[in-house]
Amino acid sequence: WSSMRKICWTSAFPNQVRAAMSPYLPWRNFLNSRERSPQDIGSRTEMATSAPVHQHQEDQEKKALRDEVMKLTELLENQQTEHEDMIAALYDQRIKTDKDRRDAIRRADQLKANLMAEKSKTKETEICLAKQMEETSRLQSALDKTERDLDEGRRQWELEKLDIAFSNICRASGV
What we know:
By secondary structure, the chain is mainly α. It has a domain at 2-31 and 60-125. The protein has helices spanning 2-21, 26-32, 38-173. The longest helix has 136 residues, at 38-173. It is rod-shaped and about 175 Å long. The relative contact order is 0.04. Mean pLDDT is 80; it is low at 1-13 and 24-36.
């Protein structure tokens, strides 16, 4: 992505340099103009005679400006690359954060589902336990009644046994 920006930016660069440098090069604009009138020829010779004197100075200024533009361009490209790297890192971090958030939501949903399943199992277990306790209570009541009936039957049997033994003793003694 950054290389595309660099290509787009650097392809516009020569036009920007020409536009920035044009105020400093009036004699070049004059020489490159297509229409030349006889009045221009006189002014051209004036510029041509004064040009060699100022040519060296203008060349130095142009070189200094070009060097400054190149340094600024390089600085701008470096900063742009750094910013693009920072943006890419932030984008990666955001993707990771979003993934972590989705994973956390998925895990929370899974835990909720597990909790609901456990609650359902617990409820079923409690219902079964209540039924078993009720059945145990009924069986305990039946057992208690059976034991009472058994005890009552034993007493009755003991009484009948005593009555039979007493009547046998009475019959044997003749009473």
